[in-house]
Each structure stands twice: as structure tokens, then as C-alpha cells.
Specification:
3 domains, two-stranded antiparallel ribbon, 303 residues, elongated, Cytochrome Bc1 Complex, Chain D, domain 2, 7% strand, 14 helices, two-stranded antiparallel sheet
Length: 303
């Protein structure tokens, strides 16, 4: 698909590029004919500070030939490579193809390094010092921007060092999360719950599930209205890892704790997405990275 949305722009760009080369050649031709290289030392008649005379000498031949060669190179480049609007060039070169070629070459070079870990279980990989050194670099380059260098996360980005897993903390689940990404979405539930007072009652009941500070009377009123939320979070509020519904009983709040934060979630919902890494990392790299992440919440493997 072309980046151009109108046929005008390819023509416009091509005209500027070709016109610029032609203009340079014309200027070079005109200036080379303005002076006779057989006669040097001719004055233009301009004198500065009484003894500085502007001479009308021709340009050096080597400079002129360098200029001509540069223009010829520009024409050859534009013929072989894309540079004139939508013209793809004789070689058919693209940035995407070049990127994919370099990625493949890089993956081919590092494949032997990961080969030793491919047949190992993630639990065993997590105890291999060399694999964990590689996993740390993979994590720092691809995961720490969101989850933090210590993997403790921040608001909106899960803590990977505890046992509170939205989609499961088994190595296989972590591999799936890294490979395909995750898209957690809670729809606005205010209309299903009722009016503003009903939303507040449900928020108080949700707080009560984790023994957080709450209004007992409002929580009792919100219990029946929580049925609208139970389809995802379960009747007991313990969540559902199959769909990424958070556990509401553990006092771990990904998007903020307290009544105001819960009311905001009920009223406005929430959409949170982890990008897929399967197109950036090889399965072998993901295997090592998953073992590294799994190790965070399994202290015995880290010893």
C-alpha cells in the first residue's frame, strides 16, 4: 500500500527531485562557459580595501568533475532505488524487506545460543544462570519500559513479582501473554448496576471483599447489585483468569484503590492492552524470557 493519498504528491516530489538535478547541471554548464580556462588572472573589476582584487578564474576541473559525478550518482540511485514518488526502483528495495533481512540474519546468528534451552522446561531454564542472564537482557529491552526494571510494575502495569496473575502465572500462560499480547477490557457497568447511589453501594461491597475500609450498610446494599459484575469476576469476586477478570478479594488494585477509583471503573470501564511480542522475538527467546518472568513469583527457583 502506498503512503501517498493523492497522485499529486508523487508527481510533485518527482518534479522537485529531477528538476533539482537538471538545475544543478545547467548551473554547472553555464558557469563553466562563463570563463575561458585558457586565460587566468583576469580581474572582475571588484577591488576591496584597495589591494584585495576579485579574480575571474575558472573553477578547478577536478571540482567540476566531482560535481558531475555526484549528479550522475544521483540519477543512478534514483533509477535503482525508490526516490521518485511511487517508483519502487529497479532493485525493488524497501525498508521493510531490509529490516526483515537483518532480523533474520540476527536470529540465525543467535539461534545456537538458545538451542541449549529449547528442550528444557521453563522451570529448569529458570535455574540456569546463563539463561537468566540472557532473560534479564531480554526483559530490560522489551518489558521493563512498562513493568519496571524490577518488574514491580506501576499503576496500569501489572506487578510480575507477586502471585496475582490476570491470565495465569504458569510458564505456558506467560508464553502466551508474551507471544500474543493481552487486551483486558471492562465495559461501563453503571447502567446495569443502577443509579449513582447503586454504583456507590457496589463500590463499597467490592471494598468489603478485600477487607478494605468500607461502609458496612452500603456494602450490604451493594451485594445484590454485584450480580451484574459476577459474570466476569465470579459470585465470590475471585475473578476469572480465562478472560483476565481481576480477583477483587486480594486487595491488589491495578488501576488504583479506594471508592473513587472503583466508582470510576464501574462508570467508565477500562481498556488495557499489552502488545504482542511474537513478531519481535523468536519462540526460543520467548521461552527464555517466560522462564525469567516466571522466576520472579517463584522464589524457590531464584535461590
Amino acid at each position: 500500500m502506498s503512503d501517498f493519498t493523492s497522485s499529486f504528491w508523487p508527481i510533485f516530489i518527482s518534479a522537485i527531485v529531477i528538476g533539482g538535478i537538471i538545475f544543478c547541471l545547467v548551473v554547472l554548464f553555464v558557469t563553466s562557459k562563463s570563463h575561458d580556462p585558457r586565460h587566468t588572472g583576469q580581474s572582475t573589476g571588484h577591488v576591496y580595501d584597495e589591494d584585495i582584487v576579485e579574480m575571474n578564474n575558472p573553477m578547478p576541473r577536478w571540482w567540476m568533475w566531482m560535481f558531475i559525478i555526484t549528479c550522475i550518482f544521483g540519477v543512478a540511485y534514483l533509477f535503482l532505488y525508490p526516490g521518485l514518488g511511487t517508483y519502487k526502483g529497479a532493485f525493488g528495495w524497501t525498508q521493510v524487506n531490509q529490516y526483515e533481512k537483518e532480523i533474520k540474519e540476527s536470529n540465525d546468528r543467535i539461534a545456537p545460543i538458545y538451542a541449549a534451552f529449547t528442550a528444557m522446561k521453563a522451570e529448569d531454564v529458570a535455574q540456569d544462570a546463563k539463561a537468566m542472564a540472557i532473560g534479564e537482557r531480554l526483559f530490560m529491552n522489551n518489558c521493563s519500559q512498562c513493568h519496571g526494571s524490577d518488574a514491580h510494575g506501576s499503576r496500569g502495569f501489572p506487578n510480575l513479582t507477586d502471585n496475582d496473575w490476570l491470565y495465569g502465572g504458569a510458564p505456558e500462560a506467560i508464553v502466551e501473554s508474551i507471544t500474543n499480547g493481552r487486551h483486558g477490557m471492562m465495559p461501563p457497568m453503571a447502567a446495569a448496576v443502577g443509579g449513582p447511589d447503586d454504583v456507590k453501594d457496589v463500590a463499597q461491597y467490592v471494598l468489603s471483599l478485600s477487607n478494605s475500609e468500607h461502609d458496612v450498610n452500603r456494602a450490604a446494599l451493594g451485594k445484590d447489585k454485584f450480580t451484574s459484575c459476577a459474570a466476569c469476576h465470579g459470585a465470590d469476586g475471585k475473578g476469572n483468569q480465562a478472560i483476565g477478570a481481576p480477583n477483587l478479594t486480594d486487595d491488589i488494585w491495578l488501576h488504583g484503590a479506594g471508592e473513587a477509583a472503583i466508582i470510576d471503573r464501574i462508570n467508565n470501564g477500562k481498556s488495557n492492552q499489552m502488545p504482542a511480542q511474537g513478531t519481535r522475538l523468536t519462540p526460543e527467546q520467548i521461552h527464555v524470557l517466560a522462564a525469567y518472568v516466571w522466576r520472579f513469583s517463584n522464589s524457590t527457583a531464584a535461590q
